[in-house]
Amino acid sequence: MPTRFIFVRHAKSIAHDKDIVQGQGLLFPLGEEGRDCAVRLAEALKDYKFKKIFSSTSVRAIQTTQIVAEFHPNTPIEQIAELNERSKGAAEGLSREEFNKQYGYVLNEWSAGIDSKPEGWESMEDLHKRVMPVFEKHTKNIMSDNDENFLYVTHGNVIRTFLGNILQIPFPLRGRIAQDYCAITIASYSSEKMRWTIECINKGLF
After folding, report:
1. Where are the beta strands (DSSP E) in the chain?
2. Strands 149-154 and 3-9, bridge-based pairing
3. Residue 63 to residue 27: CA distance in whole angstroms
4. What pLDDT does 71 receive?
5. Terminus-to-terminus CA distance in the chain, angstroms?
6. What are residue 166's phi and psi, to 5 degrees?
């Protein structure tokens, strides 16, 4: 059986509840709704046997990981800074309203398929260069098809980067891949065939 890479986007933080723009640098914890979602995510994943769990170093991802890991007390966990969300520079911490006023042009450029990069931000290409070496290293370490599962608790744009690389989606268009809070994406890799199979994308909790 191939090796599965299971990705989940972290649960909602209180920044989302307060309509504050997040990114890489903020340390907001999960809100009540986020914790409830993370508990349901943990239930959905409890029957998996994970060889290892990877998390970004953001508080919202770490707390989501901790809740999921309650069902996997003996599974090692590694935090990796390269799995952090795309940086939005000085825009992080702004209210959504203020963000739209100052950076509305960025939203328009994203909609037009432009990989916009205001000063201090990361473009999707920058994110690709940061994120993909992690996954390439993990893939190279797979020596045989042995039915192992690896869990990644990370961020929407990180998961979009991984999928965009496999599916050869141009950088400016990767943001159009839906990634909801606590949704599950699964990709399996056959080292024998050196081939990826996308099993599901953005599967929600019911």
Report:
1. 3-9, 50-55, 77-79, 149-154, 184-190, 195-203
2. parallel
3. 11
4. 98
5. 27
6. -65, -45
pTM: 0.95
Phi first, then psi, for residue 21 (nearest 5°) are: -70, 130
Q: Does the structure show a pLDDT above 80 at 26?
A: no
Say how far apart CA 100 and CA 76 lie, in whole Å: 41
Burial 183-193 (b: 16+ CB within 10 A, else e): bbbbbbbebee
Tens of pLDDT, residue by residue over 134-169, are: 999 998 877 666 779 999 999 999 999 999 999 999
Query: In 3D, which of 141, 146, 179 has the Cα closest to residue 7?
Result: 179
The predicted structure's pLDDT at residue 1: 75
| 100 token code pair | 């739209």
Concatenated DSSP letters of 168-199: T--GGGGGGS---TT-EEEEEEETTTTEEEEE
Per the document, the length of the chain is 206
Measured over the CA atoms of residue 155, residue 175, residue 203 and residue 92, the dihedral's sign is positive
Q: Which residues pair with 149 in a beta bridge?
A: 4, 50
